[in-house]
Model the fold of this input.
Amino acid sequence: MKKQSFLRVCSFLMFLLLTNIIKSQNLKIPADTTVVTNHTTTINGVKVAYKAFTGTQPVWDKKDNMVATLYYTYYKRTGVANSAERPLLISFNGGPGSASVWMHIAYTGPKILKIDDEGYPVQPYGIKDNPYSVLDVADIVFVNPVNTGYSRMIADKEGKMPDRKQFFGINADIKYLAGWINTFVTRNNRWQSPKYIIGESYGGTRVAGLALELQESQWMYLNGVIMVSPADYKIYNADGPLSSGINLPYFSAAAWHHKMLPAQLQQKDLLEVLPEVEEYTLNHLMPAIAKGGFISDKEKQQVAQKMAHYSGLSAKVILDHNLDVPPSFFWKELLRNKSGHTIGRLDSRYLGLDKMIAGTSPDYSAELTSWLHSFTPAINYYLREHLNFKTDLKYNMFGSVHPWDNSNNNVRDGLRKAMAENPYLNVLYQAGYYDGATTYFTSKYSMWQTDPSGKMKDRFSFKGYRSGHMMYLRKEDLKTANDDLRTFIKNSLTKGKAAKY
Done:
């Protein structure tokens, strides 16, 4: 009996031990941790020394409970006389649900992907120095919202996860990220610094909203907001005259790139063609589409012929769509009878191959698959081997954030109010001409509409590039876009001037 009791006790102890081992192996991210490494690079011919801080910082709810932790990477130049005077650039990507990887290792950061000069993957995958990074003029923090990168929600003491609604929606996203930024700025002693926020794609919606939220809820005033290929859902959700008509200049740019325009247009430079198409779009196409089914047959035929002239499509398919051509059809149709390729959504320079030439939209996004091909191995390698952040948790290039609450979207008006309240605040739009998702002309239109009074138009600027959504993947545009950022930052520093009208 004693031997049996002993065996039962041993079995029970073994069970407890195995249970604890299994529990200890659950994948979790530390809620509050930082790894620091030292580096040097060369930017525009000048040697730059910097520290990289990478880790996690908590998100607190209204009751000061920890509900999530955000993974970030912060680059701080060392050896400067007064770091408090250095600008701080806070960087977000979009999605919603996208990690900060894209601009982190391809645009503004000190390292970029090993890709060819046009942005296509090459092996072996990896990273290299970024000779154009803006780290020479600004410190940079790349932020991953909840469920992106290594950022995750945190369960309470009872093991219950927080309500997803406090993270996954336009206004919820803005509110908790503003609080997180406050904590980051305080911890890193950056309250004295000039501050800038940059957002790509949906990140444009995010930073437009953050400008006002930071001012009115965190009492933090910015010098600049930079929107890279921004998404403006007010336009996408509008009626056809706006949401459809506004695509024509992009159609022209993509058709020009693939040499599908008539000879008289094709022989011109792209920037000679686009102003002509923009003028036609605003003054003729949009009013024509506004007439709907009551447009005259004569005018409908004339508009279809002109759209065909500017888009590389046939007048017949345009008429078949009643002048309202979906971009997805354009991506499938443009090269259908030439090479049979589809073209990319986010960057129409990229080509795809569908199962069938027939159809109304591409089977897949040629550009996104190409980007994931090179970005995913590079970020996983870089964070672990160069920045020394080691975890078995998966780095989410795209995370689970849906359903996403798009209601009460007032970020455009919020940005205008933030600018009115803060005379220091300037805004820069950057967009690629071949972006078919958040088109360059949509960015221009959104900029025009932000301040209807026109009294602040000298504080807005727009820069276009001969590439797509991530214009910085093209080497020539990587340099130009960073130079444009550098100029914007330098020009929006106040240099002792008081903030007043």
